[in-house]
Design goal:
- The protein is α/β, with parallel strands linked by helices.
- The chain contains 21 helices and 16 strands.
- The strands form two sheets. An eight-stranded mixed beta sheet has the order 1-8-7-3-4-5-6-2. An eight-stranded parallel beta barrel has the order 9-10-11-12-13-14-15-16, surrounded by seven helices.
- The structure holds phosphoenolpyruvate and magnesium ion.
Length: about 575
């Protein structure tokens, strides 16, 4: 038995065989085709190759603008290679002679070319191998319309082991037999962690270079509470895992008893609990856990469903589904937050040199107005079916907010012109997740209808720490006094302006943080459904005046360690049976 240590990213314990996904692993299908299917197969190739060419051309243009002709030259070379008549003839000739599917032909030709180049002693020619590999992967990913192997066909439950996972991988595996996740990269608030919690899959992330010793089929125990992975566990460790699973079931049953109790502190002060969701089906779990609404619908995940990009109509149906599931309770839909670690080449949101400081979220939407307007129209139309609120991500300045609101007015006009009834008073608020926005929150509060504090990004940008980088995870501290000051400033300014202030960052799901936030005056706590009842139990046992006193104590502290130790002690005093202590 070997024990590996990582970041506890999604609670729960599971044991199952490993399924190791290699970095560059595309499970390429291989099957015979009939001679009459050759033209269709070639047409499939041409469509995929054209998409790949467009993608590379856009990459070239953007690189040219940002970094100059030298850097962009590599993409020119890729474009030339993709249109090389010799390359195309070779593929077409093999397709006809071997009668196998086009993906197989591409991989075989790639292997052959790389093999040939490796035998020539010329460094510049050998460098072409990497280009050939790149082109072939790009075309294959379009042919197969996905980047991960088909996990839904697995014959048994597995723990998925990978270097990192894309948002689209996570959405795809929801339907498969993956029971736990282990990755080398990632942190507590990376998209893998957020989705693992949403899908209730135990996950340990950020193991660094620890995966080389794990092979598919090895039995693993994933302890998502303790951040441990046991490789080839002994009988005792397996027994402990089973006991931990039973304890978790018992704790969930005990918490279920408070679902219908009111959200009031012990001295009768109200608080609001809402759920964060990523896909419409999650709204059911939110309802079942007694959520008072949806505080954050991360709409971008609709765009990561395998296969295609949803247009206005499909988005409208998805938003309406959530609104109807919540039966009149408010639903806050966040507009597209792509870019950063959520690249989506189909929409033009590409991997950038410095993606977390790049062209993402509202910046992307203000530039791609057709995409943004279609989404706004879909949201406005869904608002006819219930209480819908619009939330704008990554606002950094009042100017951006003004531009976004102008587009919202335009979308409203367009809806009316097309004959849809649209309410005039749909609330539109913003996420406070960039320090500049927190610092300007007094001004922004005059324009926005509400604030929702996004501590996942606010912590990242305040501490200058990539939230998905395991090497600097020790600095990623929502309890850092600098982050707490920005949160307090936002709450104070929002309240002074008379607008509601909530939090939808993961911090709200930590009972110790919830105690502090209540004391700072936060009204609304939004989190994944699985965390709702734990926070509810804590807040119901807290006296608001005592929470305010605790917050005053915390504001005088100098380190996150001190804050964390103090709050954990306070929470333990409130929850003697540990049912509301975060794992
Ligand atoms: C946040 O940044 O806190 C947030 C809720 O948004 P996301 O995690 O989707 O970036
Ligand atoms: Mg964010």
């Amino acid at each position: 038995m070997r024990e590996l240590r990582g970041i506890p990213a999604s609670p729960g314990v599971v044991s199952a065989p490993a399924f190791v996904l290699k970095e560059d692993d595309i499970a390429v299908p291989s099957y015979p085709i009939e001679a009459k299917a050759v033209p269709g197969e070639w047409a499939r190739f041409e469509t995929a190759a054209e998409k790949a060419r467009l993608e590379v051309a856009e990459l070239r243009d953007r690189t040219l603008k940002a970094a100059g002709a030298d850097q962009a030259a590599i993409f020119d070379a890729h474009l030339l290679m993709m249109s090389d008549p010799e390359f195309l003839e070779s593929l077409q000739e093999r397709l006809g002679s071997t009668l196998r599917n086009i993906e197989r032909i591409i991989v075989d030709l790639e292997t052959e070319l790389v093999d040939k180049l490796s035998r020539i002693e010329d460094a510049s020619l050998q460098a072409r191998s990497a280009d050939i590999h790149d082109i072939s992967r790009r075309i294959l990913s379009h042919l197969m319309e996905r980047t991960a192997p088909d996990l839904s066909t697995l014959g048994e439950d597995v723990v998925l082991v990978a270097h990192d996972l894309l948002p689209s991988d996570m959405i795809a595996l929801k339907k498969g037999r993956v029971r736990g996740i282990v990755t080398e990269a990632g942190g507590k608030t990376s998209h893998v962690a957020i989705l693992a919690r949403a899908f209730e899959l135990p996950a340990v992330l950020g193991l660094g270079k620890a995966l080389s010793g794990i092979s598919s089929g090895d039995i693993l125990v994933v302890d998502g509470d303790g951040g441990r992975v046991l490789l080839q566990p002994d009988a005792e460790a397996l027994k402990d895992a089973t006991a931990a699973q039973a304890a978790a079931r018992a704790a969930a049953m005990s918490l279920a008893q408070i679902i219908d109790l009111p959200s009031l502190t012990s001295d009768g002060q109200p608080f609001i609990l809402k759920a964060n969701i990523e896909v419409p089906e999650e709204a059911e779990a939110a309802w079942d856990h007694g959520a008072g609404g949806i505080g954050l619908f991360r709409s971008e995940f609709l765009f990561f469903q395998p296969g295609h990009i949803p247009g206005e109509e499909e988005q409208y149906r998805a938003y309406r589904q959530v609104v109807e599931t919540m039966k009149g309770r408010p639903v806050t839909i966040r507009t597209l937050d792509i870019g950063g670690d959520k690249v989506l080449p189909e929409l033009g949101a590409l991997d950038e040199k410095n993606p977390l400081l790049g062209w993402r979220a509202i910046r992307f939407c203000l530039a791609k107005q057709d995409v943004f307007l279609a989404q706004l129209r879909a949201i406005l139309r869904a608002a006819a079916h219930g209480d819908v609120r619009i939330m704008l991500p990554m606002i950094a300045s009042a100017d951006e907010l003004d531009q976004a609101f102008d587009l919202l007015h335009q979308a409203r006009r367009e809806c009316k012109q097309r004959g849809y009834e649209v309410s005039e008073d749909i609330k539109a608020g913003i996420m406070i997740e960039i320090p500049a926005a927190a610092l300007m929150s007094d001004i922004l509060a005059r324009k926005a209808d509400f604030f929702s504090i996004g501590t996942n990004d606010l912590t990242q940008y305040t501490m200058a720490v990539d939230r998905g980088n395991e090497r600097v995870a020790y600095l990623y501290e929502p309890f850092n006094p600098a982050v707490i000051r920005l949160i307090k400033m936002t709450i104070d300014n929002g309240r002074a302006a008379g607008i509601p202030v909530g939090m939808c960052g993961e911090m709200a799901a930590d009972p110790a943080a919830a105690l502090l936030l209540l004391g700072l005056g936060l009204e609304e706590f939004s989190m994944s459904s699985a965390s709702l009842l734990r926070v509810k139990r804590l807040l119901r046992s807290v006296n608001k005046a005592e929470a305010e006193k605790a917050a005053r104590e915390v504001l005088g502290m100098s380190s996150s360690k001190e804050v964390s130790a103090y709050l954990s002690e306070r929470v333990a005093a409130y929850c003697r049976d540990s049912s509301c202590i975060a794992p």
